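Entry 12.
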Amino acid sequence: MLLPQPSGNIAIDAKFPLESYRALHQDNQTPSQKQHHRRQLHQDVKKHIKDIAEKYILPPETANGAILFIPAEAIFAELHAHHAELIEQAYQLGVWLTSPATLMAVLTTAKSVIKDDATRQQAHQLRQQLYHLNHDFQKFQQKMDALARHIDQANKDVADVQHSAQKITTRFQHIENTPSDFHPSNND
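Predicted 3D structure (tokens):
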């Protein structure tokens, strides 16, 4: 299973040594046979935990832990009830014991971590895009300010031209209204 950094690759080992567990739960056993099979289960699981730690926990290439999948809730319960030292050894070596039910919880947690990482990456990309958008908007604002100054100047120039035109029109009107003996219509 690949999780985001700093976790990285987490191995899930599902090759549980079932033979000694099955032997432990055979019918018609004497107490000494049962004890022998329980010791054998202990030794087999202890070796398997050690093998997983040595084979799958290789930082920085892998995570600081690996998962040992125990294929039945009954076996998981047996280990927790009668082999507490195995549970402690697994914990110290970074081997997480999971049953079908607890593996689902681990996978659900891993899915949440992956989703959280994707959200964090999207947020980072969004921040980058917002930074670029802010930069582009500042350039746009500068151009808009320059355009507004040009438009204001053009409006002022138009107002000045209108004022000049009004003055010229007024002067023409004064000329036309000035009494004179010469009117173009009298030249005929």
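Annotation: The CA atoms of residues 39 and 81 lie 14 Å apart. The chain has five helices and three strands.
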